[in-house]
Amino acid sequence: MTFSTFFAFFLNGLTSAMTFFIIASGLTLIYGVLRILNLAHGSLFMLGAFFTFQLTHWFGNFWYALIFAPFICAVAGVIMERIFIRPVYGLPIPFQLLLTFGLMLLITDIVRIFWGVAFRTATEPQVLSGTMNIFGVSYPRYNIFVIVVGILVCIFIWILLTKTRFGKMIRASSSDREVANGLGINVPSLYTVVFGIGAWLAGLSGVLAAPLRSIMLEMDVHTIIEAFAIVVIGGLGSIPGALIGSLLLGQLNSFGTLYIPRFEMAFMYVLMAIILLIRPKGLLGEEVS
Amino acid sequence: MRYKYLWLIALIILLILVPLFLSKFLMVFLTEMLIMILFAISFNLLFGYTGLLSFGHAAFFSIGSYVTGLVLLHIYPSIPLAFAIGVVAATIAAWIIGYFCVRLDEIYFAMLTLAFGMMVHTIVWKWDRLTGGADGLVNIPRPNLNFLLFQVDLSSIASYYYFTFVLVAIALYVLWIIVNSNFGLALRAVRENSERLQFVGINVRRYRLISFVISGFFCGLAGALFGPFLKSITPSTAFWTKSAEPVFMSLLGGTKIFLAPAVGSVIFMYLKEIISGYTELWMLFLGAILIGFVLFLPGGVVGFLYEKLRGRKLGRVGE
Lengths: 289, 319
Known about the structure:
The structure holds two protein chains of two kinds. Chain A is mostly helical. Helices cover 74% and strands 3% of the residues of chain A. In chain A, strands 1-2 form a two-stranded antiparallel sheet. Chain B has a domain at 28-240. The interface between A and B is large, with 42 and 46 residues.
């Protein structure tokens, strides 16, 4: 294999890793703070992709989608949290799964009402179409854009969680809800905001992934399982873990299609199983007391 | 006390008589319901009785149905042979997968079963030379049952319904004996306080593994029944949403009473089938109903009625 092929596959892996990371970081953030495993997270991703189709279809402008679609998803997330998720805090996990599965079915049919069962596509903006030259490799501009946005989101989350007062509040409530409450943090509204941020991330991932793949029903059930695998590999609740999990899976998928084109999906689950057996809390997961 | 099981006998008689006055469509529906009841109750042995949430039980269901289907298609068209091989395959798979999974607890157990379940799905989906890939197995035969002196023709839906009914009834009876034996009691102890059991010298992992394997065995049987019933199998029987079905059926019915998941499966299947008869948007209604259940009836339908009638608290899963 020449360097340029290798490098192109590496970049492919990095591109999917970034869309993976953006959705998985939302999932793991919500689990880390709210202790909710949200099966409907993939549905928010799907909503993001369908909004991208609709907005680019109406306005012919991808940038509107990039700005508004994640925002609408965040609003949907906030409504979801307020009405449905709030009553199940503290309920055993099976009930959370049942509830969020119900939400998943609901969102699937809402999408079906508006967009039907046909495949949809969204096109990248004019500026980002075509290829550019990196180290002698001719590579699609849009993929580079996705990688850059992914890195920006990493930095944004890192600053949000470690450098701001809000981040301190999030970390305080995720390590001890009651003490945080006693210290005057309004935990319920914090939960709503965190859920909204998670939904925003899921929507953003959907927007970025939209021009790369066909937009259709059922993308939710596949995406959520990939996101689960990443979050479990990295450690439930750990955002750096989600980043490592995404990078690993991105490369695994990319080079998997090169060497073992048929079973590359299986390797993701094999990796997930091995990690769980060796380190049940994931690569960077912490003991949760 | 003598009349305690009267309702059960009445139900059995009713189930024996229904083919006389139900339409063909309803018979198909009822047969599928029986299969799903077996799937849900054998899943609940692990979930409700042993306290382990598996999110990968479609693996055993699909292995049971694929192996049975493959034997019927390619090796020898004999129902007993195919069922035996299919169920054994599912049991071996449960043994291997269970061996690893019982090391973990709670959510990590669920995630590991999910990973294994999706591995099976990928194999079933991608190994197209054996499994037919995305199309699955088609034209699975449904040969006659040969006894020494006579034959049973399974080609009509009514006769396959009786066949399913007998097998499911036997399987449920065996499961009923298991959960009421000392072993079943030990399983409930594992659920309630596994740490304490370890201190008194009981090998918790072993009990969990045995429960896992028994559960896999009966899920495999449910799967075996499913192939010749539909005469085709698709990879969606191995997808994680199929694993989610028995979880939700058990939760809808209630997990602490033996037959409650059956009620849950009846509700789930009924909703799915009936609503989809009226509107294409059945998921919308099913989703709304599932949400309603979690918010208002978290003990399940049967659990709720039981608590109201007996005034006794059953508690929720995981408490």
